[in-house]
Amino acid sequence: KQEVTQIPAALSVPEGENLVLNCSFTDSAIYNLQWFRQDPGKGLTSLLLIQSSQREQTSGRLNASLDKSSGRSTLYIAASQPGDSATYLCAVRTDSWGKLQFGAGTQVVVTP
Amino acid sequence: EPEVTQTPSHQVTQMGQEVILRCVPISNHLYFYWYRQILGQKVEFLVSFYNNEISEKSEIFDDQFSVERPDGSNFTLKIRSTKLEDSAMYFCASRQEGADTQYFGPGTRLTVL
């Protein structure tokens, strides 16, 4: 059974510091992995999607890596800003219909 | 940019009542999903829908739940005889055929009293 874990559960950094968020999954038979941002009481905003055949994906200050064989993905956010404060979720796609299985998220606070 | 929309944003109901949560997926998307997030817990998959039928459902999605695409734009989740433990944020998502990214709506917060 697939289990998705995110460590740490919470993180607080001063503005300007780089953020490193971790996601691990137990079953490497995934289609892809998607990183989302969730603001309090709001929906999920897709940040990056990495295919199972890819090692890395970048968008602006965001960079996500994937090591499928070890069941790990890392989201890097460069030069953090207070506006980056949110909960970051990772999710793996586990079947052909697109079902996503989520981690519990990492709550990030960037202090000015 | 096209968005998934959901109504209402907040629904309060009495235990035992039926509720219908509504979603308008992005117009050219063909795969539709419902997820829920109980406060403080993970987002959980409920059901996927394609070509006017359920393609997959989780153990949570029992006879109390049903989904429907009543017309060309709406996608609904009906919960019959609501229970206290159905209180959660319900998210609708959609995906384009041949693409991988799922786009989520803002959610409906369901409170069962």
- Rg of chain B from C-alpha positions? 13 Å
Category from helices, strands and their pairing of chain A: mainly beta
Number of helices of chain A: 0
Strand tally of chain A: 11
Structure description:
The complex is a heterodimer of chains A (112) and B (113). Chain A is an all-beta fold and 112 residues long. Helix content of chain A is 0%, strand content 57%. Chain A is built from no helices and 11 strands. Chain A has strands spanning 4-7, 10-14, 19-25, 32-38, 44-51, 56-59, 62-67, 72-77, 86-93, 100-102, 106-111. In chain A, the strands form 2 sheets. In chain A, strands 2, 4, 5, 9, 10 and 11 form a 6-stranded mixed β-sheet that branches. The radius of gyration of chain A is 13 Å and the shape is globular. With 113 residues, chain B is an all-beta fold. In chain B, the strands form 2 sheets. In chain B, strands 2, 4, 5, 6, 9, 10 and 11 form a 7-stranded mixed β-sheet that branches. The chains are: A mainly beta (112), B mainly beta (113). Chain A binds chain B through residues 31-32, 34, 36, 41-46, 49, 51, 89, 91, 93, 95, 97-105, and chain B through 4, 31, 33, 35, 41-45, 48, 50, 55-56, 91, 93, 95, 100-107, 109.
